[in-house]
Amino acid sequence: MKPYAKSHSPELVPSLSDNLEHILTLLGNSSDIVYREMSLGETERKAVAIYAKGMVDQQFLYSQVFGVISRRFLTEVEASPPDYPQNLKHFAQHASTFGDISVVYKSDQCVSEILAGNTCVLFDEYPGAVIFGTAKDKSRQQEEPASEALVRGPRIGFVEEVNENTAILRRRLKDPHLTFESLFLGRRARKEVIICYLRGVTNPDLVNEVRRRLQKIDIDDPIESGYVENYIQDNPYSPFPQVQNTERPDRVEGALLEGRVAILIDGTPFSLIVPVTFPMLMQSPEDYYDRWIPASLIRMLRTLALFFALFLPALYVALVSYHQGLIPTKLAISIAGTREGVPFPTIVEAMFMEITIELLREAGLRLPKPVGQAVGIVGGLVIGQSAVEAGIVSPIMVIVVALTAISSFAFPQYPAAIAIRLLRFGMMLAASIFGLYGIILVFVLITSHVVRLKSFGINYAAPYVPNRVYTWKDLFLRLPLQTLLKFRPAMFKPLDRNRSDQSK
């Protein structure tokens, strides 16, 4: 082969050998890259097909690509060399009735298509390449998301193939205004990222801000949606998640109808939704599938669970250590009796049990599912009972920690539960030093942080801040849908606020 004369330029040149050498150099002469040279009928012209072994549909490759080139080239290309490129475009457009065929003119485009599973065909005397869509279907079967299981709702979740995810959304939301914008992130491994929104509903300023933040990401490879989430969030030092992640298409559909933006990343089933507020992280799609009375009851139970998960251990430490007078007499005597013989202060008790529960929870997640469930249940029972019998902790502390752990499982969004679990330790330390005053101080600090926090320009504490009482009908309670689905949330500044004819 001749040395590549224009290695500094990404443009393909008429020399087949130069183009082939440059593309193979960009691919690193990897062993899984296959190139096959072909003669074009009785002519002296050559063609080379390049593809990645294992990523292409072999049957389609041999029957459509190689077969089409060998059978129809002479019919489609009979002109002299000056008209050769023009006729080759015609060949690319009409050579096959099956599959996607396109023409590209840059070597980096060829490399991207080859790594995506397509076949690149280079022709002699032509400064371009014909791309055949031969990528093998690699999407897995659609299943219900394990991290967001519902009692009532669609049994379908996103998959790792971004094109399949866009198709899922298109099938669910048959709106001609549903818009997908594609861009690529990553210096070395180019990952396709899709910005999804409803044109005419979503505020264009929000879409532009999402696009701006994504285009600023400069890393080798956004392996998972968590990489993108870390780069586009407003405050990376906040314990609260400022981007909502989900595997459920129905949750994304509901967010789009509210005027929010979804981000789909190739290679992961988790999509991102922006902006988000903390009350939204406490809501589940199932809240809107059931009747409003049981849904409202479940919402109130989640609010109670939030209180228990954040405050219960700290309140126990504060009351037992500093404010025994606030405990009813009989209960105080009972607590004192159970703590008789315990050698450690209350805060040491609480920290020991909370850390033990967190270790069991983490171990249960990392182990295989059958083993992990046994470790979580049996381990908690055995360690709790053994600690009580050994006199290390009191029985009431085991009850407090168990109730706290159960409450933290009631959150529909796992990232929100992690934030509460983290803040609980700060609450306990403050309670051990200052008692109830420490709890109040930490709560004020958390509240001031949440009030100042924003997600893509939206107040994280909305609808509490700014206070819009009329939006509280979908906060602690979930009133009938006839009253909820009249207007879109004003906080997102949608172009079309009306959601039904009743709102006009």
From TrEMBL:
One of its GO terms (cellular component) is membrane. Belongs to the GerABKA family. The keyword Membrane applies. It holds the Pfam family GerA. GO terms for biological process: spore germination. Keywords: Membrane, Transmembrane, Transmembrane helix. This is Spore germination protein GerAA. The chain crosses the membrane at residues 261-282, 303-322, 392-411, 423-446.
